[in-house]
Amino acid sequence: MAIEQPDSMEDLVYFTRRKLENDGNVMLWVFKQECPKCHKAQMGKPVNEKTGKAKIRAKEYECPACHYTVEKEEYEEGLTANISYVCPHCKNDSEKQVPFKRKKVKGVETLRFECDKCHKTIDVTKKMKAVKK
């Protein structure tokens, strides 16, 4: 079963492409969910009326059609991460779907999943911004 590839970044909540050690790599994306109330549009961050851009730090997601809002934590719990990867341990090239739930590993938010072949864990960490001094 092939996982659906994204057509546009507009359809996604999250996307990353990472290189891992030993020639491994990961491409991970999470599709936006359809509005549970009106089923006409995809939920997204609220849009600033003046600039027309999404409010990046918003604590909720909003339907552009009916303006139904859901808290960020509640919305992100129901998302599914689609992963295409080459395992750095066994070189297995595979695809997988896992719940989009990050956990703290060594103090960093991490999405952890298992290789289908060798069952070793692969971590995709949340990129941290560098602190300017």
Give an overview of the whole structure:
The protein folds into 2 domains: 1-33 and 78-133, no CATH class; 37-77, no CATH class. The chain has one helix at residues 72-77, and strands spanning 12-19, 25-31, 60-62, 69-71, 80-86, 93-99, 103-105, 108-114, 121-125. The protein is mainly beta and 133 residues long. The protein contains 1 helix and 9 strands; from the N terminus they run E-E-E-E-H-E-E-E-E-E.
List the helices and strands and how they pair.
Elements: E1 12-19, E2 25-31, E3 60-62, E4 69-71, H1 72-77, E5 80-86, E6 93-99, E7 103-105, E8 108-114, E9 121-125
Antiparallel strand pairs: 1-2, 2-5, 3-4, 5-6, 7-8, 8-9
- Which residues sit in consecutive blocks of at least 5 with pLDDT less than 50? none
Rg over alpha carbons = 17 Å
Spatial order of the strands in the main sheet? Answer: 1-2-5-6
Task: Output the helix-strand order.
Answer: EEEEHEEEEE
